[in-house]
Design a protein that fits this description.
99 residues; alpha+beta; three-stranded antiparallel beta sheet; 1 helix; elongated; binds zinc ion
């Protein structure tokens, strides 16, 4: 029995976050009492070869990342659904159907 899992490509693990920050200059709008911070900066955070990694990306790349992350999460949900089904039909259950 062959099953095909369909999903949207590209996929990407990890997440996107945004941040604003202050710079190193002493006299800058980001140092005012009601500061105008720099940014927004977009960051991708995830694991690459087991190492937690953060990459600063452009707004456009961040948008691409978000699309891919959504695809990956949808795929993960589908896999989790399949696993629940698989466990409900595991070899030790009465519902088990041998191939
Ligand atoms: Zn500044």
């Amino acid at each position: 029995m062959k099953k095909t899992l369909e999903f949207e490509w590209p996929i990407l693990p990890g997440s996107i976050s945004t941040a604003r920050s202050r710079c190193g200059k002493a006299r800058c709008a980001c140092k005012l009492r009601s500061p105008r911070l720099h940014g927004i900066y977009y960051r991708w955070t995830g694991f690459i070869e087991g190492k937690r990694t953060t990459k600063t990306v452009s707004k456009e790349v961040a948008r691409e990342c978000l699309r891919s992350i959504r695809n990956y999460r949808r795929l993960q949900r589908d896999i989790e659904k399949l696993l629940r089904k698989a466990l409900a039909n595991a070899p030790w259950t009465s519902r088990f159907t041998s191939p």
